[in-house]
Specification:
- The chain has no helices and ten strands.
- By secondary structure, it is mainly β.
- Strands 1, 2, 3, 4, 5, 6, 7, 8, 9 and 10 form a ten-stranded antiparallel beta sheet that branches.
- A hairpin with a 2-residue loop joins strand 5 and strand 6.
């Protein structure tokens, strides 16, 4: 095991926001910074998401659940308004969409890739 702590630190302010593009679909107004990339799954499992005002992500399923923390702004998820400081855990196979009227930044942990429905 690598014991150099510096190999595990992500300086998020030094990373550029990238447009969210999944399977060739560009989700307008949503940007991402990868925090933890899983080479075995070939995908990020911990990310920062930034929604511009009015941006939305379509109805989808989380086969292995998810965890998210609203760092800034607010988001509407499954009929609930989450605001700065709110945490949400959804169990496996929980389905919902996401919209942010005013914009937000979310810390997002997702063990498996979401399924757009």
């Amino acid at each position: 095991m690598n014991t150099n702590i510096h190999d595990y630190i992500v300086k998020t302010e030094q990373k550029e926001w990238q447009p969210l593009i999944e399977k060739g679909i560009h989700y307008e107004g949503i940007f991402v910074k990868s925090l933890k990339f899983d080479p075995e799954k070939n995908r990020s499992t911990s990310i920062l998401l930034k929604f511009e005002p009015g941006a939305s992500y379509p109805y989808h399923n989380h086969p292995a659940g998810e965890e998210l923390f609203i760092m800034e702004g607010d988001a509407d998820i499954a009929g609930a308004r989450l605001e700065k400081g709110d945490y949400l855990y959804t169990p496996p196979n929980f389905k919902h969409s996401v919209k942010s009227e005013h914009g937000c930044t979310i810390l997002f942990v997702v063990p498996e890739e979401v399924e757009i429905l």
